[in-house]
Design a protein that fits this description.
The chain contains 2 helices and 18 strands. With 304 residues, the chain is mostly beta strands. The chain has one domain. The protein is globular and about 60 Å long. It starts with a strand and ends with a strand.
Amino acid sequence: MKSYFSTNRVLAWTITGVAIATVFFACKKQVTTDTAPNNQTDNNTLTVTQHETVAASMYADLFDETAKAAVLQGLDKAGARQATPGSTANADAPGCPSLELLDGTGTTWPKRVVVDYGTSCLDRFGVYRSGKINIIFNGPLFNAGATTVIETDSTYKRNGISISGRLAISGVTYDNVKGIQYTTDLTRGRIGLSDSVIIDYISHKTVKQIAGVDPVGALVNPSDDVYSIEGNASITYEKGPLVGVPATFTTVEALIKRWDCQYISKGKLQIVFNKITGILDYGDGKCDNDAIITVGDKTKAIKL
């Protein structure tokens, strides 16, 4: 069964509210030029932190695209309606991306879906994608106990950056008291930031809804939803100026992401690189683009 898909803006916002909760850094950070450290090791630590920013957001986007595909193919929950084959309603661009459900027989699982962006597919938010995402649903995405595996190879690109790896979503639960909870595990992650910088990236993250639970069902009214994120990640450089020195990232205090705020608004993340430890502090819950990073004896302002 093959169809073309995208989402209307409401659906995109709804899914992104959950998807973005899987990242350690919601958006790219830039160190303000007037406060940049003058020690090269500290500078390298900040560079690695920025690269983790990019990596986390790229793989969060994979989850976002998978969630949209699940909703539109009726694979998000038991009994959901399948998309009409050939439908181009609300498409981001005529004919792209195409979505093919390879195993559409009744209630038989697993089901395989291929999302094909072709050579260049521009969505309504200005993001270019190309290549394919391969998804295996072992049950409806938001059903308790279901697992979903997302795989890409180096031909898949987002805004020209190649992204490959295996992202597994497991431990999914939903009830009208605790809301949504799930875990993501990334293995074999590889990102070509440029011709001269290639990073290998792995992560393990747990997302829990802590406010705004709707007793009717998941994602019914997400405007007051709040999520906590805990976990760890690591980067090694396959190519670039920092080859051979790994970096690790671990939540010290759970990161808090509100649906109605584009930034992570609270929590702390520890960065360890080349025997240097840094702490990124997102603040006290205020929705703003300010954060503080402490590396060694230096404390620097960071803008989101």
